[in-house]
Amino acid sequence: MNRRFLYIFNPDHDLALANNNANYMPSAPARRLSEDLALLPVWYAGDES
Question: What percent of the chain has pLDDT over 90?
């Protein structure tokens, strides 16, 4: 059986939960962090992903 893995990278999630607002918009530094680290899963996800 060929198993595939899905890695979800969502660094804003904890900030959204702490904000407790349905219309949460991450701050500029949080958005920049998310953009800067967007390729991070490439290194920790294996070839089987």
Answer: 39
* HSE-CB of 1 using CA atoms within 13 angstroms: 3
Supply the range of the domain harboring residue 31.
Answer: 13-44
Number of domains the chain is built from: 1
pTM for the full model? 0.65
Residue 19 lies in a domain: yes
Which own/partner contact pairs does 9-17 have at CB distance under 8 Å and 24+ positions apart? Answer: 9/37, 9/38, 9/40, 9/41, 11/37
Do the domain assignments include residue 38? yes
